[in-house]
Amino acid sequence: MEISGETDPREILGPIAHIYRSYLAYMAKELETYGVGSGQFEFLLVLYHKDGVSQETLAKILKVSKAKSTRAIQGLEKEGYVYRQRDESDLRANRVYLTDKGKEMRNFIFEKLVSFMDILFSDFTLEEREIFRLLLHKAAIRFFDPGFEPPTDTPNELK
């Protein structure tokens, strides 16, 4: 389906959204018995890359509200995966650190990520996997910037 000579956005964005929702549901199910809720594992993934970042930085990297970030971190803290510590250079900020229990979950979480990718790519050739990876990275690169903000222009018909 095309709109005004362009590809229908639903043809691209629909499958991306469906894959992402499936990924969250899969990970939530796999991590449920460990007390890690939907989306919380993403905070752990960031901390595996860089432990001790501020709550605000976590929210920006994951593109979630400060409130959602706080709830997720509180849940992970309650389960013993992370702890918060006041930032000595900015007493208003908290830095988030992995506990030993949080660090021990790393391999398990990565195994589950690989399992999901195996399902996702089950009908792909090695070449198709690589092409998909390259194209997806090319499409997403501008959104990786933690400072990325969607445009604020509102189309006239929505005003």
UniProtKB/TrEMBL annotation:
<dbReference type="InterPro" id="IPR036390">
    <property type="entry name" value="WH_DNA-bd_sf"/>
</dbReference>
<keyword id="KW-0804">Transcription</keyword>
<dbReference type="Pfam" id="PF01047">
    <property type="entry name" value="MarR"/>
</dbReference>
<keyword id="KW-0805">Transcription regulation</keyword>
<dbReference type="InterPro" id="IPR036388">
    <property type="entry name" value="WH-like_DNA-bd_sf"/>
</dbReference>
<dbReference type="InterPro" id="IPR000835">
    <property type="entry name" value="HTH_MarR-typ"/>
</dbReference>
<protein>
    <submittedName>
        <fullName>MarR family transcriptional regulator</fullName>
    </submittedName>
</protein>
<dbReference type="GO" id="GO:0003700">
    <property type="term" value="F:DNA-binding transcription factor activity"/>
</dbReference>
<keyword id="KW-0238">DNA-binding</keyword>
<feature type="domain" description="HTH marR-type">
    <location>
        <begin position="9"/>
        <end position="141"/>
    </location>
</feature>
<dbReference type="GO" id="GO:0003677">
    <property type="term" value="F:DNA binding"/>
</dbReference>
